[in-house]
Amino acid sequence: MSSLRYWFSAHGGSFGTSVVLQPEGPFGASVLAPKFQRDTTIATCPFSLIITKDSSLRALQTLLGPPSHSSLETWSERQLICSYMSFHRLFSDQSLPQVLQHYPYITCLPAAEKLLTPLQFSKEELEMLKGTNLYGATLDRERERRVEWEQCHPVVQSVNQAWGEAFTWEIYLAAATHLSSRAFPSSILSAEPSLVSTPSTHPVLIPGVDLLNHKRGHHVSWIVSCSEATEGESLSGTVSIVAHPNTSSEETSEDQLEEVFNNYGPKANDELILGYGFSLPRNPDDKMALQIGGTQKSQKWEIGRNARNIEGLWSEVRSMVASEESEYEYEDDLEAASLLSEMVQSKLDGMKTISDVRSNNDIRSEVKIMLEHYIEGQRDILESMLEYLAGKQEAAIEAAREQGIDLVLDEEND
Q1: DSSP state at residue 192
Q2: Stretch 22-29: mean pLDDT, rounded?
Q3: CB atoms closer than 10 angstroms to residue 300
Q4: For a tag site, which of 19, 61, 92, 131 has the least CB within 10 Å?
Q5: What is the mean pLDDT of residues 132-159?
Q6: Residue 55 has pLDDT above 80, yes or no
Q7: What is the C-alpha to C-alpha distance for residues 255 and 328, in angstroms, rounded to an integer?
Q8: What is the mean pLDDT of the chain?
Q9: What's the CA gap between 175 and 111, in Å, rounded?
């Protein structure tokens, strides 16, 4: 990490004087500092060091030459940034072309074999996700990334055969994983900065600042100093991340180092696992996207723990089964509750259990932890939906009883 710190400082970046960079931690590199009593700037990165689609395009145009320019102009921002990052892996420090200026940063990122998103899962590990939304999302993302690489690879190979042979799918995938796990929206590089991604923003990498790991609900501040761009020149400025005093009740000495965290915002475990390669136990932000099949206009509903936001899905199913022939509303309620319960139970039955994960000796321990966290959350959501629907069913039975009708529901035998 000393080479990263030297390079960062030499190019206008800075770390706080008390900040210690630790190369190996539970989630890769981490940032440590003594307990502080006042707001402290942890890292500051100049705009000139930030990896963007435009800076990547300029570097690749220089590296690959004029014959590649028309192809490069068609590449997405992810293809440009990932290809730029990948090229740093094709050279040694001594033979590195000058246009590849992020070598100390790129080589400090976790090695491919240490990345733990589902795209790096073994066949047995991925099998544990069958029956969940994350399984399909993983297959979709791998297909997308492969298509990207298959578009980029021939362009590189046509310029230099040796480069093309070295520019493998594995190298591109590692770069894409680093991008998904470390990127910030380009809207932060603005006179009116924002950390909210929109369809008009694209990912950017902010060296130094992106070393801080995630802690849910942790309070940090971002400070962006931005000067107005003059004609013919790009915007200049700096991005800083500021940590606030630790208010935890744990007693630590002033000299004792503790990790300094960032906060990526509320994220469910499916997003954390797919994009970052880690998870949180009993994550309160967990959710499940559900859609009623058979109708093209059917809306996707995101249901959380304790059946949060289930009302919209319930209303949709309720309107589907509503019949003019039903004399009483409780009849439609019973049918809707029965139909939706069957769907939820089918989803639950098709999902692996935590016991399935724990008993499988072919799964790495780090992956087991993520699978347990994710499956616990998904099953908890489905079970809370069943409880909600059981309540609807009981309410319908009570409504029927008030009409003088005593309903007895048949229960399936196990």
Answers
A1: S
A2: 68
A3: 9
A4: 92
A5: 98
A6: yes
A7: 71
A8: 90
A9: 10
- Give the largest Cα separation in the chain, rounded: 88
In this predicted structure, what is the pLDDT of residue 252? 56
Q: Residue 48: left if φ>0, alpha if ψ -120 to 50, beta else—which one?
A: alpha
Strand partners, 222: 241
What's the CA angle centered on 380, arms 307 and 262, to 5 degrees?
90
Q: How far is CA 186 from the centre of its chain?
A: 17
Query: What is the DSSP secondary-structure string of 156-183?
Result: HHHH-HHHHHHS-HHHHHHHHHHHHHH-
| Residue of 214, 209, 302, 222 whose CA lies nearest to 25 | 214
Please state, in angstroms and as integers, the Cα–Cα distance from residue 39 to each residue in 206, 228, 244, 246, 334, following that order: 21, 27, 5, 10, 57
Q: Where are the alpha helices (DSSP H) in 167-265?
A: 169-182
Q: Which residue is listed with tokens 């008009």? A: 200
Length of the chain in terms of residues written: 414
User: CA-to-CA distance for 23 and 185, rounded, in angstroms?
Assistant: 26
Gyration radius (Cα) of the chain, Å: 26
Residue with token string 């307990």: 35
Say which amino acid occupies 72: L
Q: Between β-strands 261-262 and 213-214, what pairing exists: parallel, antiparallel or unpaired?
A: parallel
- In angstroms, rounded to a whole number, what is the distance separating the alpha carbons of residues 144 and 169? 12
- Tell the residue number behind the tokens 């000058």, with chain if given: 98
Check residues 200 and 206 and name the one with the higher pLDDT: 206
Please name which of 361, 300, 281, 328 lies closest in space to residue 137, comparing C-alpha atoms. 300
**DSSP letters for 307-338:** GTTHHHHHHHHHHHH--TT-SSHHHHHHHHHH
Select from 80, 220, 210, 248 the least CA-distant residue to 155.
80
Distances (CA, A) of 13 to 9, 208, 362: 5, 8, 43
In DSSP terms, 227 is beta-bridged to 236
350-381 burial, b for 16+ CB within 10 Å, e for fewer? ebbeeeebeebeebeeebbbbbbbbbbbbbbb
C-alpha span between 385 and 301 (Å, rounded): 13
Q: Which of 119, 108, 121, 106 is nearest to 28 (CA)?
A: 108
Written as six digits, the tokens of 182 are 């470390």
> Distance of CA 317 to CAs 56, 160, 299, 343, 399, Å?
48, 58, 11, 11, 19
